Structures are given as structure tokens and as C-alpha cells.
Amino acid sequence: MLGKHIGDGRSLAVDTDFVSGLGLESIQVMEFVMEVEERFDIAIDLDTLSNVRSVDGLAAVVAKAVGARS
Length: 70
Prior knowledge:
Layout lengths: L2 H4 L19 H15 L5 H4 L5 H15 L1
């Protein structure tokens, strides 16, 4: 999912920062998060999102949100 936003085949580690590591603009991060929300049928509030900087951080938020539905 993230590949289409970074587009140049850069390697991606779980701790890669979306902005400083991948060079994404904030709007690109928001578009990616919206895709994640849609794919997993969840909503991530802005307060939580403001603390998410990396793939592993987002994965933890998604896992918690998906788990809360169960």
C-alpha cells in the first residue's frame, strides 16, 4: 500500500520515518492513512495519528483498532 506513495523502490524498514526517512509530505501520509483506514475498516483519531511517525507505529495503532472491534 505504501509503495505507490513512495514510488521509487526505496527500501523500507519497520522503523522508517514517513517524513524524514521517506520524504513524504503530510498530505501523502494522510492519504496513506486514509487507505489503511478503509482497508481495515477502522478510524484513527487525529490525536493518535499525530504521534505516528513510522510503519511500526502505524501497525501498532491498526492492530489495536482492529482488536478493539472484536
